[in-house]
Amino acid sequence: MKRLIFLFFIIATLFISLVGCNSTSDASQVIDTTKSENFSKNNEGDVLATIYTSDSLAENIINKEITLKELSADSLFNELKNQKVINENTALNNYKSYKENGQIIGVIDFSKEFYDSNLGSSGESLMLNSIAKTYIDNFKLDKFKILVNGNEYESGHILFEKDDFFTKDGLSN
Questions:
Q1: Residues facing residue 88 across a β-bridge
Q2: What is the pLDDT of residue 72?
Q3: DSSP-derived secondary structure for 74-133
Q4: How confident is the model at residue 11 (pLDDT cuts 50, 70, 90)?
Q5: Beta-strand runs (E) in the chain
Q6: How far apart are CA 130 and CA 119, in angstroms?
Q7: Its pTM surpasses 0.85
Q8: Alpha-carbon radius of gyration of the chain
Q9: How many whole angstroms separate alpha carbon 49 and alpha carbon 154?
Q10: Distance between CA 49 and CA 21 in Å, rounded?
Q11: Are 148 and 110 a contacting pair, CB within 8 Å?
């Protein structure tokens, strides 16, 4: 009887794991997260979003709950500019998301004016992490990359390589 129960358990586990598998490959499958469907709405139909910025001493990242008409790459970008995380002369060249190996990856591309901030290494790190956390949390991303005019982010303090991404837990490659 014990062997029969054990055999049933093994077969059921195998069946459940096979049903959960997808035979189609999702490598580099482009998905549209320029507008997110994973958000909360208030009673007026506006979207609740989280924006990350630095505290008043520019030592830590804090979050602010805000209300937007829609949750999109543009609305998050504009709110980051309003919160002075991104300088006002920066333009959003492009934002895209895609699915690769089961992970959702977001890539944002800013204009060259993104470099026009006069920040030290700590301030620059806070800025980049604030942007990354904002997009990762609101679009439920696994990885996030910041480009400037289509190139990897590179300043006097920080240099990103092709395989460097922000994640929920920080920077990874």
A1: none
A2: 97
A3: HHHHHHHHHTTSS-TT--EEEEEEEEETTEEEEEEEE-GGGGG----HHHHHHHHHHHHH
A4: low
A5: 29-31, 40-41, 47-54, 61-68, 92-100, 103-110, 143-148, 151-152, 165-167, 170-172
A6: 14
A7: no
A8: 20
A9: 29
A10: 32
A11: yes
